[in-house]
Amino acid sequence: xxxxxxxxxxxxANHGWLETNHSFSFGNYYNPDFTHFGQLRVMNDDIIQxxxxxxxxxxxxxxxxxxxVDGAIRHEDSMGNSxxxxxHMVQRMSAGSGITHSxxxxxxxxxxxxxxxxxxxxxxxxxPRYEDRTFDPKEKQGKLKLIVSPDGRDGSFDIHQDVxxxxxxxxxxxxxxxxxDNGRSGWLQVVNGRVTINGEEYTRGDAAIIRExxxxxxxxxxxxxxxxxxxxx
Length: 233
Fold this sequence. Notes:
mainly beta, seven-stranded antiparallel beta sheet, 233 residues, globular, 54% strand
């Protein structure tokens, strides 16, 4: 079974410096039907204005993944990391027993767009960790590239949870397929473009909730980019 969740059904907020869409309950947005999906807790699609951003604030006991789409952000944290993340970069931050950090648009002229993703860890109190990496578009072109996994295989980030996150960039007419083991479900988030899943079209911001499917095929109707999560719901 595949259920479509339209982009416009997400929570939306415009704070002036930040325009954001929430797939799950977050901040002032609450939807009892979408508080999480398995251990996937947050899927925020953020557009940050030039020179603006999130001031220093704390996190704990959460696996935080930042998937850069456009522009760049400057990251600083209490572990001593100071980095600028640009397009095609991904950041993994295990907040563990507690960290503070800030994220600001690194440009004074261009907007930044990113997806902020939170995964609930398998236990509390891990030692905080930080890592960022560039995933060349060629690694994602025409295939599903593993970005996050519980064991760090195939060059992915390792996180403290049995969640696998794939990224894909497809040209018009290209298709990829993914098989799900018994008992596992999927969440597909369209980043850009248009794709078809089982004959239904999905565009930027739409999500596909995949349950009790042994395999899905995603076909691009335009130049497209999406994330696919394989997890236990």
